[in-house]
Amino acid sequence: MTIKVYIPRDSSALSMGAEKVAAAIALEAKKRGLGIQIIRNGSRGLYWLETMVEVATEKGRVAYGPVKVKDVASLFDADFLNANYANVKPHSLSLGLTEEIAWLKKQQRLTFARVGITDPISLTDYLAHDGYKGLKNALQLSAADIVKTVTDSGLRGRGGAAFPTGIKWKTVLGCEATQKYIVCNADEGDSGTFSDRMIMENDPFVLIEGMTIAGIAVGATQGYIYLRSEYPHALVALNAAIASATEAGYLGNNVLASGKAFHLEVRRAAGAYVCGEETSLLESLEGKRGVVRFKPPLPAIEGLFGKPTVVNNVISLATVPIILDKGAQYYADYGMGRSRGTLPIQLAGNLKHGGLVELAFGITLRELLYEYGGGSATGKPIRAVQVGGPLGAFLPESQFDTPLDYEEFTKIWAVLGHGGIVAFDDTVDMAKMARYAFEFCAIESCGKCTPCRIGSTRGVEVIDKIIAGKDTVKNIKLVRDLSDTMLNGSLCALGGMTPYPVLSAMNHFPEDFGISKS
Amino acid sequence: MQALQTKIDVLIGQHQNMPGALLPLLHAIQDNIGYIPESSYTHIAKALSLSVAEVHGVVSFYHHFRTHKPGSHILQICRAESCQSMGSEALEAHAKKCLNVDYHQTTADDAITLLPVYCLGNCALSPAVMLDDEVYGRVSAADLDSLIAEAKA
To answer: Is A48 touching B (CB cutoff 8 A)?
Structure first.
């Protein structure tokens, strides 16, 4: 009998040697004359356990991890393929049934329902796991009803701005135009985030399906995925999935014989952080410098090539299929306040158990950092966390009980952003982090508006003086004035939000800037 | 040089009719020959009805594009916050010291070009580096040494 062995193809798993582990397992099985079928699945997102190898058994999939090449022979010796421990002691890397691992079991995976379970580029696997049910339902509805379903679900833009997705779609639907576009913002540049990458590498069809539904809803026939150049594996997975979807009639001139067309193409970004801003992204897609546009006009009215365009983040679009499959209410039943549904949270930085945790809004940072994250990787106290990428505020321990909710974060002058959480232990120097925030802004500024272009460089200079202990009080005031100008005078979030990390570092950790708490 | 230009002209022909052709074309050129020679700007500009200044403007705007031949391998070290929280600064210093280069420079033997990168999406396994198209996680100084040795072999 051929036994199915799952070894992830996700790039974080590959970064821990998954490719070599797969080769070693194949070789060892051959040597021992055992029939196995290796399936390269996605990662379950328990990254500290990568390479996580799973074996299909009668009771379900059994996991082992973290597996290194040197462990392979001993796994075979421990009869890991049969995972029947009647006669042998389980291998020391045995994690038991995958679905029973508490870290995974407690999650509410809606957007990530298939991630880690299926072979990402197998359309058959996708269909066998509820794939394309959302699109089939959508094709039975009027355009306005699809948009209404998305609006009623309460889904808000997961890229960071949290704008209601349905409202954006409604604007585009209401525009008369010869051509409309769906653009997926896959320029996931925030440090501490990888949920977009995981979707694209580990379940690319769900993004394709979401974009197709968006196209049918608003009357767009062409979609583009603007993918950051740092994600070569996502590019391969997306292109393979687009090819199979096209061949099977899920994309093309006549989507599932509905008479409606939707074409999809991946375009590579080129390493500019600012292109994650939607108007600069559109400039880049048009083949220009990624310089931010003035708004209005909104991209929904005049977007790509001057045409009405939906620009949504990967996670927003990848969440649409389950909403159309299970209904708006099913999704809206999760969450708190005006933050409906679930958020794929990324635990990163100095944490023992980093990875992907999808949960309904409402969980606190403390639960995430300690119950899921397991505390710091270095074993030292967690002193600060940055939520929402390089433009997100730093939070001190006194704010760890804040629930993850857009409005609750706004109340403490912080942002949820794209759901990335980066933890720092007590060796972090917050003045250095504030300096880095300005430095990053200076490197990545598109240069169109003065507060961002000049302010960021001046910010680095002034922080350097503070670090050197020169006229501290005067220079702190100067940074505050400069931040005020950037907050209120910048064209986009890059200059406009750089003061979040800077001022939060200063406010919560003044001792690092040579000033007292008062 | 002539052979290079012929190659670029073929790529121009393949891409010039795409909507928003410039970025896909620049990627194709860099993927094929490793960089975007400034000498090709006039050809690109003419085919896409742009000025040479516009082509230069786009190439120089994006960190990914380069106008000079890199080393045989490209080593990118992540400088972003998550990796900083796990000691990437020490890793950067180590790389610069043992390669004897700064960022954006190539080793004397033309083997490795060192570049900074701002997030590789491997933040649960920081610090991360990328060698050519492969990401490596939880990279120690010793891991980096063996990666460099493998690349140079």
So the answer is: yes
Q: Can you give the residue range of the structural domain that contains B12?
A: 2-61
Paired with A226 in beta bridges are A185, A267
* Paired residues of A313 in beta bridges: A185
Query: How many angstroms separate the CA atoms of B69 and B58, rounded?
Result: 18
Q: How far apart are CA A237 and CA A266, in angstroms?
A: 11
State ipTM: 0.97
CB contact under 8 A, B118 and A273: yes
A230 and B119: CB-CB below 8 Å?
Answer: yes
Contacts of A272 in chain B (CB under 8 A): 61-64
B111 shares its domain with B132: yes
Residue-wise DSSP of B37-62: -GGGHHHHHHHTT--HHHHHHHHHH-
By CB atoms closer than 10 A (0-12, 13-18, 19+), residue A309 is: buried
Closest alpha carbon within chain A to B61: A289
Specify if B142 maps to a domain: yes
Fold classification of A335-425 is: Ubiquitin-like (UB roll) (3.10.20)
What pTM did the predictor assign? Answer: 0.97
Q: Suggest the residue from B85, B138, B144, B147 to mutate for an interface test with chain A (most A CBs closer than 10 A).
A: B85
**Which CATH number is B147's domain given?**
3.40.30.10
B9 in any annotated domain: yes
How far is A235 from B74, CA to CA, in rounded Å?
19
Q: What is the pLDDT of residues A56-70, one digit of tens each?
A: 999 999 999 999 999
Write out chain A residues lying below 8 Å of B23, CB-based.
Answer: 267-270, 284-285, 287
Does residue B89 sit in the same domain as residue B140? Answer: yes
The reply to whether B80 and B148 lie within a common domain is yes
For chain A, the domains span: 3-105, 123-332, 335-425, 430-513
Residue that is last in its domain, among B40, B61, B82: B61
Q: Give yes or no for a contact between A350 and A43, defined as CB atoms under 8 angstroms apart.
A: no
Give the best residue of A11, A47, A51, A191 to mutate against chain B (max B CB count within 10 A): A191
Q: Tell me whether residues A420 and B123 touch, CB distance under 8 A.
A: yes
Instruction: Please tell me the CATH code under which domain A3-105 is placed.
Output: 3.40.30.10
- Is the domain A430-513 a CATH 2.120.10.30 member? no
Listed residue (A29, A46, A48, A39) closest to A9, CA to CA: A39
Q: Taking CA atoms, what residue in B is nearest to A282?
A: B20
- Residue B86: inside a domain: yes
Residue pair A399/A385 in contact (Cβ under 8 Å)? The answer is: no
Q: What pairs with residue A3 in β-bridges?
A: A36
CB A317 within 8 A of CB A210: yes
Is residue B6 a part of any domain in this protein?
yes
Per-residue pLDDT of chain A (518 residues; tens, 9 = 90+): 799 999 999 999 999 999 999 999 999 999 999 999 999 999 999 999 999 999 999 999 999 999 999 999 999 999 999 866 555 678 999 999 999 999 999 999 999 999 999 999 999 999 999 999 999 999 999 999 999 999 999 999 999 999 999 999 999 999 999 999 999 999 999 999 999 999 999 999 999 999 999 999 999 999 999 999 999 999 999 999 999 999 999 999 999 999 999 999 999 999 999 999 999 999 999 999 999 999 999 999 999 999 999 999 999 999 999 999 999 999 999 999 999 999 999 999 999 999 999 999 999 999 999 999 999 999 999 999 999 999 999 999 999 999 999 999 999 999 999 999 999 999 999 999 999 999 999 999 999 999 999 999 999 999 999 999 999 999 999 999 999 999 999 999 999 999 999 999 999 999 999 998 65
Query: What is the fold of A123-332?
Result: Rossmann fold (3.40.50)
